[in-house]
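Onboarding guide, step 5: your first structure request.
Type a short instruction followed by the sequence, for example:

Predict the 3D structure of this protein.
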Amino acid sequence: MATPLRATAVLAWGSGEDGQLGMGGNEEKDWPHFVEALGPYAVTAVVAGSRNSLAICDDGRLFTWGWNQRGTLGHPPETKTESSPGPVDALAGFKIVQAAIGGWHCLAVDDKGRAYAWGGNEYGQCGEEPERKEDGTRALRRDIPIPQRCALKLKVRQVAAGGTHSVVLTQEGHVWTWGQPWPPGDIKQISTPVRVQGLEKVDIAAGGWHSTALTIDGEVYAWGRGEHGRLGFGDDKSSHMVPLKVELLAGEDIVQVSCGGTHSVALARDGRMFSYGRGDHGRLGYGRKVTTGHPMELPINLPPLSSSRDGRWQAKYVACGGRHTLAIAEWTEATD
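The system replies with structure tokens like these:
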């Protein structure tokens, strides 16, 4: 395994069949590996989607890679997949501070609180109003390959993207959502934002058919479909329509949660990562393909930083995709 030259490193593991690990190929990885192509950049955040990934640099540049048949990489598809990170030229003039990837759509927010969306839109998940057809009916545009503004009336602080739905947190601390938040047919889809009642001043994350909210006290709440244990309640089947506290993470001082298609990862303040949910393709990072509803700590087995012997790698950011996971790790020197 290559040794990172910076004190921070982008890690990837799980399925790589669509190039979503960013390593120039499509191999599967059962434990965290260093993404060498991003080594020269000061990456501050990473996002993993259903079959693609993105990274945000400290200067606001956005890089994407993986599956692009629906325009999820931010440009019209020339090839089915792209296995190395590339810039999103359409957002080059904006400083992106946070982003999210859903099943096949993406969201981003800039330093002015403006939200952007692109990719698949058949359930209204990009927030675009249906187009009026010649016969008077309205239909949603299926794909939006170039990033465009969404949630125009909201000043956004954070975005989250589920399988076919979107969630935003405004700078006032309110949570809004649109798209298809449950399997088609169960709940009517909407293309304009509606406010989620009962959640104030939280951090948000959205997965395939589940979502989480993190309070300022480090408590995790989850709701949605519970198959494979993705909600972290200890079982592999319970589903909940309203947010419930994840008691199995109580006391761990969680600072971030990320939701994938069928798994989740929680990051503790001390740099430990806890993963749970579906485990095939190595997406939980344990080195073995186990499925569990119990959050378990996963190891970071990177070589020590070449300029230092004493210390350890600590996770600073996590991102769950459909069948893969990303993280940013930082080398921390040992203290006497």
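Each response can be followed by summary notes, for example: The CA atoms of residues 180 and 186 lie 9 Å apart.
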